[in-house]
Amino acid sequence: MIPFLERLGRKPFQVVWEITLACNMSCRHCGSRAGRARADELSTAEALKLCQDLADLGTQRLTLAGGEPTLRQDWDLLAKTLVSLGIRTNILSNGRTWSRELAQRARAAGLRSVGFSMDGCEVTHDYIRRVGGQWQGVIDAIRLSREEGLDVSVVTQLNTANVAELEAMHALLGGLGVRAWQLQLGNPSGNMADHPELVLPPESVLDIVPRIAALREKGAAPRIFVGDNIGYFGPYEQLLRDQGGPIPFWIGCRAGMTVLGIESDGNVKGCLSLPSAQNGVDRFVDGNIREKPLREIWEHKQSFAYNRSFDRDTLVEACRTCDFADVCRGGCSWSSFSHTGECRGTPHCYHLQASLKAARESQGAAHGSR
Which of 113, 221, 265, 317 is deepest in the core (most CB within 10 A)? Predict the structure, then answer.
């Protein structure tokens, strides 16, 4: 699979850029432990140069993220610059201080869509966000953004507190005119590592995946997109991932292959979700744009080695002996590292959990027949 991805082109087609770590919330599931801005965040001039560097490397889609990205005063200047360079850009906000003025600034910058985080129905969302009334704030943000002509998407991290509300949330978002809904599993990383009671057990995917597939099969709005840590290779895989393209199945983690993450101080990672200094980890930072040009970091032969130098023999046994190992490569790197401390295979794999269940049932049947 790596040679195939190389033939497709090793470019950072999709980038998530944390433009500030400042945040006006302290959510229970925040992987980056956002709150205060980093002491050495990129200046406007540095950020504008980075916009050009990303365009030169072939970036096609980019999300301005945080923290809360609107707390950085030049966010719309960065958005306008990226759009002018031909990069399809959106912004992901928690919605707490979103206003008609911000929606109008987004439109003026050339953004066609905005995204908001929602963590469940009202009580659940406010619990996860630790702020009463925040759920209604997101609802209002969605409505006024739609009124200003912006498409709206929503991102949800699934956890033990909200997983039962999956269908109810889909109906709610559809009624609000939300165009797209991205789902991902919450990982024990950052603040969520301090709340293990929120982490879904691996076997829960046997319930979650069919439910998501059923919602996608209905075809009702919003259209569901699954994150890179949901799936893989069960009977629902095509339903989960078919977006009309030529490859309707999981093709492995693309961090450092076609995906790039940038922190607000200029640190470069294969995926923004992978941990770094905020969580006492430095192994996933492959350079800083203040020290080396972005192109040099991207093209260095030793960068993003966990993907670019993939070795099947490094996987855990269950993944190493799997028929899909060379394609899957152990699943989402962020999930794998969060759960095991290494990028060697995630336990939240549908194919793995279905196989384990089948083995248990077969063993139970054998004992019962004695």
Answer: 265
The tokens for 159 are 């956890």
- CB–CB of 192/129 below 8 Å? no
Rounded distance between C-alpha atoms, residue 212 and residue 182, angstroms? 11
The two three-digit tokens of residue 135, written as one number: 């759920």
Is the previous residue joined to 222 through a cis bond, with omega within 30 degrees of 0?
yes
First to last CA, the chain: 45
Separation of alpha carbons 344 and 21, rounded Å: 29
Q: What is the SS3 assignment for 357?
A: helix
Separation of alpha carbons 163 and 157, rounded Å:
9
Give the pLDDT score at 235. 95
pTM, entire model: 0.96
Write the single-letter amino acid at 251.
I
How many angstroms separate the CA atoms of 230 and 335, rounded? 10
Closest CA to 21 of 44, 40, 38: 38
Residues of the chain by 3-state class (helix, strand, coil), percent to 5: 45, 15, 45
